[in-house]
Design brief:
The chain has 338 residues and is α/β, with parallel strands linked by helices. It has 2 domains: 213 residues, Spore Coat Polysaccharide Biosynthesis Protein SpsA, Chain A (Alpha-Beta Complex); 112 residues, no CATH class. Helices cover 45% and strands 19% of the residues. The chain is built from 13 helices and 10 strands. Strands 1, 2, 3, 4, 5, 6, 7, 8, 9 and 10 form a 10-stranded mixed sheet that branches. β2, α2 and β3 form a beta-alpha-beta unit. α8 runs antiparallel to α9, α8 runs parallel beside α10 and α10 crosses α11. The longest helix is centred in the C-terminal third of the chain and has 25 residues.
């Protein structure tokens, strides 16, 4: 058994996937790199199999018909041999020095009695085209370099919630928690992070800049124009998250507060993209989405809608929507998330 499985979902990634795979090879022999070639029509499969031939002790390839990002992750999860599980997208990469520290820390949690459920590390927004980067860390919100529980966490900064880029889960926990990522759907990374949370009891935060999140491709899912075109998928994922758990049944108060904040962020992202669409139809969809939350989880709706974020995203009339967009643009400029 390997210590860590890293799944790399690939679709027509020939132009950049080698960078990701080269960075992952620095993790060493305790890591398994599992490339899922998701029905690519370019040289992605050929490149992946070349790596598997050159590094048979580390790299495996699974070729499958196109099912989308979530389906590729689920395929990787079924095939994973590692105690722990990480997803790295094919246009991203990891830092070698930070990776060595991650492996060393996971090694301490390799034994059955020592295992943790989640390891969290930092991620960095990388914008090489304009020479900018922004590190997203969890200092102040999470205890550093020690095992802790949800009872030990503090409040998260509103834009520093846990993303797929920052998390490593215990593989068996993912298999048992009811994780199910829909096929042919974008933004399922939110479901991937959110679904296992109530099953997590032992956590560790390592303050290293491990994951490098590339921002810059015109067809990237977080590109604003792409998000507007795919807003119905963003809404669908948000509804899946709303439906996943009855919030009042989450026993731990701090975990419940965090999960509610996660829903608030999802609602805000969907709402601002619908506002940016600037059509009557998109405004109708925004109203319907908030109505969906009110119907499914009334208490959560009340706390989010009349909290600061909910009020800022639901300012009345055109003038209010302009203010909401200005706030979004300011956050976009400061953080650099798309």
């Amino acid at each position: 058994m390997k210590l860590l499985t890293v799944v790399v979902p690939c679709y027509n990634s020939e132009a950049y996937m080698s960078h990701a795979l080269d960075s992952l090879l620095t993790l060493g022999a305790e890591a398994e790199i599992l490339v899922v070639n998701d029905g690519s029509s370019d040289r992605t499969g050929e490149i992946a199999h070349t790596y598997a031939e050159q590094y048979p002790h580390m790299v495996r390839v699974i070729d499958q018909p196109n099912g989308g990002h979530g389906d590729a992750i689920m395929t990787g999860l079924k095939a994973a041999s590692g105690t722990y599980f990480k997803v790295v997208d094919s246009d991203d990469w990891i830092d070698a020095e930070a990776g060595a520290r991650v492996i060393a820390r996971l090694r301490e949690f390799a034994g059955p009695e020592d295992r943790i459920d989640m390891l969290i590390s930092n991620y960095v927004y990388e914008k090489p085209d304009i020479g900018k980067r922004r590190c997203m860390h969890y200092r102040g919100a999470l205890p550093q370099n020690e095992v802790f529980s949800w009872d030990d966490i503090d409040r998260f900064h509103i834009f520093r919630y846990i993303l797929m880029h920052s998390v490593i889960y215990r593989t068996e926990l993912l298999r048992k928690c009811g994780l199910d990522l829909p096929k042919h759907t974008f933004y399922v990374d939110n479901i991937y992070v959110y679904t296992p949370l109530p099953s997590v009891n032992r956590l560790c935060y390592l303050d290293v800049d491990f994951y490098r999140y590339f921002i810059g491709r015109a067809d990237q899912s977080v590109n604003e124009r792409v998000m507007i075109a795919r807003v119905d998928q963003q809404i669908a994922v948000t509804k899946i998250i709303i439906d996943r758990y009855e919030m009042e049944q989450i026993g731990n108060r701090k975990l419940r507060r965090y999960m509610q904040s996660y829903i608030a962020i999802m609602m805000a992202v969907s709402s601002i993209i619908l506002i940016r669409s600037a059509t009557e139809e998109s405004l109708r969809k925004k109203k319907e989405l908030w109505g969906y939350l009110r119907e499914k989880q009334p208490a959560v709706f009340f706390r989010i809608r009349y909290g600061i974020l909910g009020q800022c995203i639901n300012l009345p009339r055109k003038e209010g929507r302009r203010i909401s967009v200005l706030g979004y643009k300011l956050a976009q400029r400061v953080i650099g998330f798309n």
